[in-house]
Amino acid sequence: MDDLPPRIGIDRPGSFSRSVFQERHPVLIANLLDDFPYPPRIRARLEALLAESRDGAVPTAVPPGPNAPFWEAQIAECAGRPWRSLPFLWAESYFYRRILHATEYFAPDSPWYGVDLFAPQKHAQLDGPEILSDLDAYTALAEREPDERRQALLHAALWGNQADLGFRTISAIAGQADVVVDDSAAVWDLIDGPGEGPVIVVADNAGREITADLALIDAILETATVELHLKPHPYFVSDATGQDVLATLAALAANPNKPVQALAQRLREAIRDERLILRTHGFYVLPSTYRHLPPDLADDFRAATLVILKGDLNYRRLVGDREWDATAPFGEVVDYFPGDVAALRTAKSDLAVGIPPARLTELETGSPDWRISGTHAMIQVLH
């Protein structure tokens, strides 16, 4: 599809994207200042960044860290522009890169070097009562028929970042939330098909979501090898890194339920045997879309049996974070993708494609905030 709609921006009053910068980011910065005893220099940088992003312009300085040539080129194009004129995806990614600079994450001579500034928020989920409930529900799935169990695990991965879902059965999920488009059967057909490449799972959040993802991966490992792609460093608050996966495996191993301990053991053995490979790539922390994949990652996706993209951010990058008509066919929007791809996404932004017209009318009438409420989701497949 060559004729692309405009990119979603952050300039329209009342829009979701605008609210992220005007309402959510102040809370994010306040949480960071509460979570860590940052010295005055770091506190001042964080507060200045917040003020700049709400009312200022992009400075000429390039934030230090990896992917420097990319950011140098980007800043050369955007320096001097008001933040409110920037594309939403670019502005968000740049904001988080600046947060890492402000907190000295990439400064080797700083005591804050390499400190995951979002770790307290991620670890709180691993220690919370909700995840214990999730894992009790996971244990109960052992009594289900294999196909029903696999389907429940797929839906658990879909809803894993929701506060009250996790490892629910299909019927329980249906009573609490709405899967607007459900191509689950196509997902399993591809996983169980003749493809010889790995199934690639591109992770989204840590905490309860990566826990659900790991349970799904355990099921996929019964018939295929898996690559789990993670962020190379902290990004978008709860995004999962390699450290988060290791922390999750430790939490699973310490759970009193024997089936959960066995899950952790199977996953550890799969990692040792390289049936489950943990990978990362610098692309995942850039404001680029999947339409502009680096050649090596495009080759990996092309060779995979299936690429599963988790979460809202990956969905935005897949379809391009543009002002699409929600009825635009998913297959036409993402037909550029180098291989078979499945998007598992809980709707938390204005973006949507592939919604049947009658269903869209029903949603807009009955649930006007369905795009951002987190109560609606979709499993969409390009094959």
UniProtKB/TrEMBL annotation:
InterPro entries: ARMT-1-like_metal-bd_sf, ARMT1, ARMT1-like_metal-bd. Pfam families: ARMT1-like_dom (PF01937). Its cofactor is Mn(2+). Residues 21-356 form the Damage-control phosphatase ARMT1-like metal-binding domain. Belongs to the damage-control phosphatase family. Sugar phosphate phosphatase III subfamily. SUPFAM superfamilies: AF1104-like (SSF111321). Keywords: Hydrolase, Manganese, Metal-binding. This is Damage-control phosphatase ARMT1 family protein. It catalyses: beta-D-fructose 1-phosphate + H2O = D-fructose + phosphate; beta-D-fructose 6-phosphate = dihydroxyacetone + D-glyceraldehyde 3-phosphate.
